[in-house]
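Notebook entry, structure prediction.
Reason for the run: the old model in the group folder had no record of what sequence produced it. Starting over properly, with the input documented here first.
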Amino acid sequence: MSGEGKAVCVTGASGYVASWLVKLLLDRGYTVHATVRSLCDPSKTEHLLALDGAKERLSLYEANLSVQGSFDAAVNGCLCVFHTASPVLALVNDPQAQLIDPAVKGTLNVLKSAAKVRSLKKVVLTSSMAAVVFGSTIPEHGDVIDETWFSDPDICEQRKMWYSLSKTLAEDAAVNFAKDNGLDLVVINPGYVIGPILQPTLNLTSDGILSMLKDGKDMFPGGMYLLVDVRDVAKAHILAFENPGANGRYCMVGKAAPHMEIMKIVDKLYPSLGHSERRKDGECVEPLPYYVSRAKAESLGVKFTPLEVSIKDTVESLKEKNLLSF
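New structure, fully documented this time:
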């Protein structure tokens, strides 16, 4: 399907996933209304304005998640709103102010603007696997996690998992608002996003991968990395809009992998990084504790990028930006 003559809005357009979403939308011929927090910050705008097709079909708008009506101008005349804007912070002093309010109230502010637009056909919300896997049932060996799994806000709060709480509450608020206001809402739930970077500054997940590449550090000791390529996530958003049968939520995890498996791939591709010296040799024989179903995402038309390709492209992107040298 060609996007020629069709206008769509992307919120938080300078972010990691959103930058790729803007790029792929422009590549498909769409006219894109992109919101950023500040039009005066070149780190938020320059890489977007440099994209192919941007000069002809990209308009930037300044918008603030905390201000009701802030997104009215950007969504006006659009067929779809891709709402990606939401804070991603590892350390917070005030979870309510720093994460929860911007995620929940910000989502509702965007949806309130969207509900005013008669031309609007659909809203695609960027949620997270953080809103899927932290429920009252802990995944066990052999479990298959799918779109029917939901994180429990009480459990997230008890464990002080503030990002998970913010994404869970924001998704809940969006689903309820859409139902009450007749909006067609589709939700994308990505795992840990890796792959090449378009924006000039490091996002949280890319920074984590950079640390792992530099010193072999395991960010989730003993845990699983629910990995997905940023380009696959961006494509899934577009497919969710273009496919009239798209509905509900879509788990986006290309591969669940333990730290050891990731480091073996890195060592195979880039032996000069020296990770074989830093870790014990031996095969990763532990069975995966659980899997994440790709069935619904693949039914949408998503073709997942192999993990080895995603890791290679991540490393090459970090090298290109002079963030990693070896």
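Summary: The domain at 7-194+230-253+292-303 is CATH 3.40.50.720 (Rossmann fold).
The old model has been moved to the deprecated folder.
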